[in-house]
Amino acid sequence: MTDDGRWVEACSEGDLALNNPLRVEIDGLALAIVKTDEGIFAVSDTCSHAQWSLSEGEVEDCMIECGLHGARFDLRTGVQSGPPATSPIPTYLTTTADGTVRVQIHA
Ligand code: FES
Hints:
By secondary structure, this protein is mainly β. Helix content is 0%, strand content 44%.
């Protein structure tokens, strides 16, 4: 993850419940936005195993679990914790100001 790209509005901070992923689409890119005790994270909403929507899964200890086959990904790094996923998911920088969550998109 590099520090270039453009910042786009993703959602309102008030839309986010703790550890409850919110799916948003920005320019055709599906993201899961997650508020945790460690901050607000944005990751690809698409599981790297079989393209399931990660926002339908559960979050615990800064890990999001895919609801289809149970792969888990670290919200901070996108790295999978084990099978069946064998590759990480993209992560995106976030910032919050005046109650608005913005995500840095590379495209
Ligand atoms: S689709 Fe996510 S673990 Fe299989």
